[in-house]
Amino acid sequence: MNSVYANKNIVLGVTGGIAAYKAAEICSALVQGGASVHVIMTESATKFVGPVTFRALTGHQVITGLWDEPREFEIAHVSLPDKADLLLVVPATANIIGKVANGVADDMLSTTIMATKAPVVFAPAMNWKMWANPVMQKNVEKLTALGYRFIEPECGRLACGEEGKGRLASPGVILKAVADVLAIKNDLDGVAILVTAGPTQEPIDPVRMIVNRSSGKMGYAVARAAVERGAKVILVSGPTDIPEPAGVELVKVQTAAEMLSAVMARLPEAKVVIGAAAVADFTPKSPGNQKIKKTGDELSIELQPTTDITAEVGRNKGDRVLVGFAAETENLIKNAQSKLASKNYDFVVANDVSKPGIGFGADENEVTIIGKDGSVREVARAPKLDIANEILDSVKQALGA
Ligand code: C5P
Fold first, then answer.
1. What pLDDT is stored for residue 353 in this prediction?
2. Ligand 1 contact, 277 CB (< 6 A)
3. E strands, 76-119, where?
4. Annotated active-site positions, please?
5. Could you tell me if 245 and 154 lie in one domain?
6. Do both 169 and 226 map to the same domain?
7. Ligand 1 atom with the shortest distance to the CA of 306
8. Is 3 part of a structural domain of the chain?
9. For residue range 123-149, what is the model confidence (pLDDT) as tens digits?
10. Could you give the angle at which helices 94-101 and 108-115 cross, rounded to 10 degrees?
């Protein structure tokens, strides 16, 4: 069967929400696509839809309790997580998301999620107030940083009669997301990739500093995408609010000078360097040892240039692949091309930071990837993880060349 689902083992977790009945349609489509689907239902889910439905659709025993007599599997919560190519939770209640985010494993589904190394995809569905609850959003943010995926709920009329964001995403969207995860290639297996991310902070005195607007999201997305594709990732990061991503070696730095020494120290190990950090170009020449007093007078702070880290890597590049970013507000392509040449990059990722909704701090980006061979590839607006994968596709090609 020529489908991305063919011969894949998918564990479908069904939790207790009204949308549980919609999981049957997803289940059926996966089975028709050739997947072997094993369903785990929480106890509440069985109040909304009967296990027999999923048994009939999948041809497999449905697991409903942690203490069920194992029939198909020796010890289900050990064998299923290992067998799974993907774990999909439809619908995902606030309860299951909260449990996983906090390490609770008190039923078969949460235990299986905890025990699997396979990608986990949640399709949440709940009342809009529950979805908007800051506790919920923190859990989603934490899990996302750890590599769990979420298919955003849609806006519309909810089962409770209210309108808002909380409806289960449509089957088409869920199936596409599953197909995308199953299609992730392991094409950077073992490749050592050094990524810089975030801003740097340059001290003026012990309490004040010069910073910039970088959130670190783009660099962290590159690190995460690279890990998912099998790379060995060293992430040298300035201060950010992003939780530590799973599977990377995180080296935390504060200043441009610290970032430079961390990068140069790890350069010998790296086959690829991707400079997504927004490194300060200037740093106070002589930061005060004590807090500078307010006197009412004007204050001048003398700044000196920092070392350009990617340019320094470019001078010591060897046979590495080097990717730099160019955040510009005007003459995007021209400015990016001149950086490509002057810094000895293989690729420059140009993004127009003057456009609203993309670039600094945003969850999405829209970039042009320019190669030293003259190639120009425009990548339409997309989540930063997708942009990261596009960048890695270019890197992969250059590695193969
Ligand atoms: O020249 P510009 O600062 O715009 O170039 C941006 C690129 O250079 C980014 O990839 C950034 O990570 C890198 N850079 C650096 N060290 C600096 C300044 C920029 O690595 N001091």
1. 81
2. yes
3. 86-92
4. 160
5. no
6. no
7. 21
8. no
9. 999 999 999 999 999 999 899 888 899
10. 40
Paired tokens of 281: 């170009």
Same domain, 229 and 272: yes
Measured in angstroms, how far is the CA atom of residue 212 from the centroid of ligand 1?
Answer: 13
Q: Which atom of ligand 1 is nearest to the CA of 276?
A: 12
135 in a structural domain = yes
Question: What average pLDDT does the segment 77-99 reach?
Answer: 91
**Of 182, 201, 236, which residue constitutes the final position of a domain?**
182
Order of strands, sheet of 86-92, starting from the edge strand that comes earlier in the sequence: 36-41, 9-14, 86-92, 120-124, 149-150
- Residue 101 inside a domain? The answer is yes
**Which ligand 1 atom sits nearest the alpha carbon of residue 312?**
20
Query: What is the 8-class DSSP label of residue 55?
Result: H
Contact between residue 323 and residue 391 where contact means Cβ atoms under 8 Å apart: yes
CA distance 197 to 250: 10
Share of the chain above pLDDT 90, in %: 79
Q: Are residues 153 and 223 in the same domain?
A: no
Q: What is the DSSP letter of 300?
A: -
Where residue 379 sits, what CATH number does that domain have?
Answer: 3.40.50.10300
Same domain as 333, residue 314: yes
pTM exceeding the 0.85 threshold for the entire prediction: no
Domain count for the chain, please give it: 2
One domain for residues 176 and 242 = no
**Residue 360 belongs to domain spanning:** 192-399
Q: Let me know whether 237 and 94 are in one domain.
A: no
In this prediction, residue 117 has a pLDDT band, given cuts at 50, 70 and 90, of confident
Is the pLDDT assigned to residue 391 strictly greater than 80?
A: yes
Q: What is the pLDDT of residue 269?
A: 97
Q: What is the pLDDT of residues 318-362, one digit of tens each?
A: 999 999 999 888 898 999 999 999 999 999 999 888 887 766 777
Task: Say if ligand 1 is within 6 A of residue 256 CB.
Answer: yes
Instruction: Considering only CA atoms, give the Rg of the chain.
Output: 24
- Which one of 135, 152, 182 terminates a domain? 182
Give the pLDDT confidence of 56-84 residue by residue, as tens digits: 999 999 999 766 655 555 545 558 888 89
Contact 337, 375 (CB under 8 A): no
Rounded-to-integer distance, Cα 304 and Cα 159, Å: 60
Sequence-distant (≥ 6) Cβ neighbours of residue 167 within 8 angstroms: 19, 125, 153, 154, 155, 156, 157, 158
The answer to whether the beta carbons of residues 16 and 45 sit under 8 Å apart is yes
Q: Whose CA is nearest to atom 9 of ligand 1?
A: 325
